[in-house]
Design brief:
The chain is mainly beta. Helices cover about 10% and strands about 35% of the residues.
Length: about 725
C-alpha cells in the first residue's frame, strides 16, 4: 500500500487556510468478483449528491472537503463503525462485468464467502487554523470501534467517559475526524477502500425512534386490507419529549419518505424492508403512508396499511405476532443530517374461536339418555310417507337439527340452523365485529364428510372421503363405500350451499343402507361423521374448532318374525304357514306396512291418513331362502342347517297346491299372494317335541333388499304332549 502526503491550498471551508492530508490508498490487488464500493447500510445520514449516495467517499480529499456523514455524541460512548457498513457489488460474478446496478452484501457474507474483513485507520489531517490533528479527538481501533476524545494540556488524547458532563470533554464538540476503511483479504491485500468523515456533536445525532404503541387492542385476523393510524395527538408528546423540538420545527425540518418501510435491526439501528435485505419482498409487512392533510391533532398523520398476505408474512416471521414497522422522515436541505423513524406497533390477534354452535333440538339427538350437550348422533331418514313425497328422494337438511332465535319486526322468531357464539377468549378482539359482514367477519358454514370417516369399516367394507389416495385427509362433500378406495361406490353427497345430505340411489348404496335395522345399537349402525366447516370473511378463514357429529342412515324398512308363524309336527300332508304369517314389515317409524284385517281375515296394505304405506315403500318381491334354513331340533337353542332328508320345506302356491320358486311377486297388484302362498313343512313323521326353524327372508322394495331370519315355531307331535 502506498500513500503520499499533500497540503491543500484551501481549507475545508471557504476562508479556511491550509489543510494537510494523506493521499488516497491505492488497491494493489485488483477488484475481484464485481466488488464496487464500501457503503452505508442506512443512507439517511448521507447528504452528498454522489451518484451512488450510500457509498463512502472515494478519496480523502472528497471526505475532507464535504460534510460529515457519521455523527458521534461527545459523551455517548463508542460507535462500532463496522455495524454501519456493507459491501456494494454486481451480480455477474466470474464473467465479464457488465452489470451496473449495485447490490448489497453484508460484512458477514463477505467474510463467509471470500474471507474478507474491514480494517480501519485514522486519517491524519489538520483543518483550518487548528494546530491539532482532527483525529486526535478520537480513539480508533482497527476493528472500527470509534470513541470520542479530548486533548489535554499534554497534547494527549483522552477518552471522554460515557455520560460525562465535564467541561473539558466538550472541547471535542465540532471536531471532524476522518477514517480510512479498507476491505482486505486474508493476506492483507486491499480489495476496496473508502473514507468516513465524522463529527463529534453535543447531542445524540440519531435520536431514539418514536414508537406509537397501537398493539392494544389487538388487530383482528381478517381477510381484507386493514389500516392502523396514528394522529398528531399520538405523536405530539413524543416529539417534544424525545426529539426536543416543537411540532412546527418537526414539520418544517423533515419530509416523509414514500414507499419505504423499516424494522429495527437489533443493533440500535434500522434496516429497510426489501427483498435485497433478505425479506420476503419489498415492504412485505405492508406500507406506511403519510396523510397529506394530517396536520391537525385529530387527523391521522401516518397509516400502516396491510393486506392478509402481508400480515401472514408478519406472523410467520414474528412468532409473537407483534411488530413495530417504521416510516422514515428525512431532513430537508440545510437541516440536520439524520433521519427520524416513526414506528407503529401492532399485534395481530390469534384466530377467533367459537364457544358453541347454537342449540340442538332435544328430540332429534341421541343417545336420548345422555345430556343434550353430549349427544353426538342424529338420525337421517327417507321422506315421511306423504302423497306428495317420493320415498326414493332421500334428502335431509342438516340445519333441521339445530335452531336459534332472531329478531324480526320486533319479535323473536325461531330459525333452523347453527348460530356461532364467540368464545370468551376471543370476545375482547372479535366480540364487536362477530358475524358482522360490514366488518369483514360474516360467518358462513357448510357440512362436510369429515376426513375421520376415511378408513372406517362398516359392514365389512370401508368408508372413503375420496377415491384419490392423496385426498384422504381432506374433508369432502362425497362419501364412498367399498372394499378398495379406487373402486368404492358413492353413497352420499353433501350440498354446501343448501346444507343437505342426499343419499345415493345405486346398488352399493342400497346395500349399505340395508345393513342394519333402524332400532339396532352400535356398532350395528350405518353412519357418517359430519364436520361443521365454518369460515369467515371473503377469503374464507377457517373458524375453529371444527365440530363433528354422527349422521345415522336409518334403514327405511325392517323385516321381523311374525308370532303367527307356526308349524304343527306330523300334520297330515305337511303343515303350512301362510306367507303373510311368516313376517312383519315395519318402516323406520315402527309403523306396520302390512296389516291383518280381522274382519276379512286377510293381509293387506297398511294405510295411514289415506297414504298406502305398502305402495309408498314399493314392496315388490319376497324370497324365502329355504336352502339355508336352520333348526334346533337336535339341541334346543342351537341352530344348525336342516337335514333335508328329515325336514322338507316347500313353497306352494296354496295349501295343497303346486310348488313355486323364488322370488315371489308381491307387488301391490299381487299383494293377495300374502293370503294364498304358503310355506309347507314335512318331517319323517317321527315324534318330536317343540323346536324352532329359522328361514332367511329377503324383501325387495324401492331401496333395495332387506334381509332377516324369521322364526317359525314347530309344535311337537300331538301324541307327545
Amino acid at each position: 500500500i502506498a500513500a503520499l502526503e499533500a497540503t491543500l491550498v484551501n481549507g475545508e471551508k471557504e476562508g479556511e487556510e491550509k489543510s494537510t492530508v494523506t493521499s488516497d490508498y491505492a488497491a494493489i490487488m485488483p477488484m475481484i468478483q464485481g466488488f464496487k464500493a464500501i457503503a452505508y447500510t442506512d443512507d439517511s445520514k448521507i447528504v452528498t449528491k454522489n451518484t451512488c449516495k450510500p457509498e463512502l467517499y472515494k478519496t480523502a480529499k472528497e471526505a475532507i472537503e464535504n460534510v460529515y456523514t457519521v455523527p458521534a455524541q461527545y459523551n455517548g460512548g463508542s460507535i462500532e463503525l463496522a455495524d454501519l457498513l456493507c459491501i456494494h457489488h454486481v451480480e455477474n460474478f466470474g464473467e465479464k462485468i457488465t452489470a451496473t446496478t449495485h447490490k448489497s452484501m453484508s460484512l458477514a457474507e463477505a467474510a463467509q464467502l471470500y474471507n474478507l474483513t474491514l480494517k480501519f485507520e485514522a486519517v491524519h489531517y489538520i483543518s483550518g487554523d487548528n494546530d491539532t490533528e482532527e483525529n486526535a479527538y478520537s480513539q480508533l481501533e482497527e476493528d472500527g470501534t470509534f470513541t470520542p476524545c479530548y486533548v489535554n494540556d499534554k497534547e494527549e488524547s483522552v477518552v471522554i467517559p460515557e455520560g460525562s458532563t465535564e467541561k473539558i470533554g466538550r472541547s471535542a464538540i465540532g471536531r471532524r475526524p476522518a477514517v480510512l476503511v479498507k476491505l482486505v483479504d486474508a493476506t492483507n491485500n486491499v480489495v476496496l477502500a473508502g473514507y468516513i468523515k465524522l463529527e463529534i456533536t453535543e447531542k445524540a445525532a440519531t435520536p431514539d425512534a418514536i414508537v406509537i404503541d397501537k398493539s392494544t387492542p389487538q388487530l383482528p385476523y381478517l381477510c381484507g386490507e386493514q389500516t392502523v393510524s396514528i394522529t398528531w395527538k399520538d405523536m405530539s408528546g413524543k416529539i417534544l419529549e424525545e426529539l426536543g423540538m416543537t411540532k412546527e420545527e418537526f414539520t418544517k425540518g423533515y419530509t416523509f419518505v414514500k414507499d419505504e418501510t423499516y424494522v429495527a435491526d437489533g443493533k440500535g439501528g434500522f434496516i429497510q424492508v426489501t427483498a435485497a435485505n433478505k425479506f420476503a419482498a419489498d415492504n412485505t409487512y405492508g406500507v406506511v403512508t403519510e396523510t397529506p392533510d394530517g396536520n391537525t391533532s385529530t387527523n391521522a398523520i401516518l397509516n400502516w396499511t396491510s393486506n392478509k398476505t402481508q400480515r401472514d408474512q408478519l406472523i410467520k416471521d414474528y412468532k409473537d405476532r407483534a411488530l413495530t414497522l417504521y416510516g422514515k422522515y428525512k431532513p430537508v436541505a440545510g437541516g440536520t443530517t439524520y433521519a427520524i423513524y416513526v414506528g407503529i406497533k401492532i399485534s395481530i390477534a390469534e384466530l377467533p374461536t367459537t364457544a358453541s354452535y347454537g342449540n340442538k333440538r332435544d328430540a332429534f339427538w341421541y343417545p336420548a339418555e345422555t345430556a343434550l350437550a353430549d349427544r353426538d348422533t342424529v338420525r337421517t331418514n327417507v321422506p315421511a310417507p306423504d302423497a306428495a313425497n317420493n320415498v326414493a328422494n332421500y334428502v335431509k337438511n342438516l340445519d333441521d337439527y339445530f335452531y336459534h332465535y332472531v329478531t324480526e319486526a320486533g319479535k323473536e322468531v325461531e330459525k333452523s340452523g347453527i348460530e356461532f357464539i364467540v368464545s370468551e377468549a376471543s370476545k375482547p378482539v372479535y366480540g364487536e365485529i362477530w358475524n358482522n359482514k360490514d366488518k369483514g367477519m360474516e360467518i358462513k358454514y357448510s357440512y362436510l364428510f369429515s376426513a375421520k370417516n376415511d378408513g372406517l369399516t362398516i359392514g365389512g367394507k370401508k368408508l372413503f372421503v375420496s377415491t384419490v389416495e392423496a385426498d384422504k385427509s381432506k374433508s369432502s362433500t362425497k362419501l364412498y363405500w367399498g372394499e378398495k378406495r379406487a373402486t368404492a361406490s358413492l353413497i352420499a353427497t353433501l350440498d354446501k350451499t343448501a346444507k343437505t345430505i342426499t343419499y345415493a340411489n345405486n346398488d352399493e348404496a342400497k346395500v349399505f343402507l340395508n345393513l342394519f335395522g333402524h332400532n339396532e345399537n352400535k356398532p350395528n349402525q350405518q353412519f357418517a361423521i359430519i364436520e361443521v366447516s365454518a369460515v369467515y370473511g371473503d377469503c374464507e378463514i377457517e373458524l375453529a374448532p371444527a365440530y363433528n357429529f354422527n349422521a345415522r342412515f336409518l334403514r327405511p324398512l325392517d323385516i321381523e318374525s311374525n308370532d303367527k308363524a307356526k308349524f304343527l309336527d306330523a300334520e297330515a300332508n305337511g303343515s303350512s304357514v301362510l306367507l303373510g304369517n311368516l313376517f312383519k314389515a315395519n318402516d323406520w317409524r315402527d309403523k306396520p306396512v302390512i296389516v291383518y284385517n280381522d274382519k276379512d281375515k286377510v293381509y293387506e296394505a297398511a294405510k295411514e291418513n289415506n297414504v298406502n304405506l305398502y305402495e309408498y315403500y314399493g314392496i315388490s318381491a319376497i324370497t324365502l331362502d329355504i336352502d339355508n334354513a336352520t333348526c334346533d331340533v337336535n339341541v334346543i337353542g342351537e341352530q344348525k342347517p336342516i337335514n333335508k332328508d328329515v325336514i322338507k320345506l316347500t313353497i306352494l302356491d296354496k295349501v295343497g297346491g303346486t310348488a313355486i320358486s323364488n322370488p315371489i311377486d308381491i307387488k301391490t297388484t299381487n299383494i293377495s299372494k300374502l293370503n294364498s302362498v304358503v310355506l309347507n313343512y314335512k318331517n319323517n313323521m317321527g315324534n318330536t317335541k317343540d323346536f324352532t326353524i329359522m328361514v332367511p327372508v329377503k324383501v325387495t322394495y324401492t331401496w333395495g333388499t332387506v334381509s332377516a331370519k324369521v322364526a317359525i315355531a314347530v309344535d311337537g307331535t300331538i301324541a307327545n304332549r
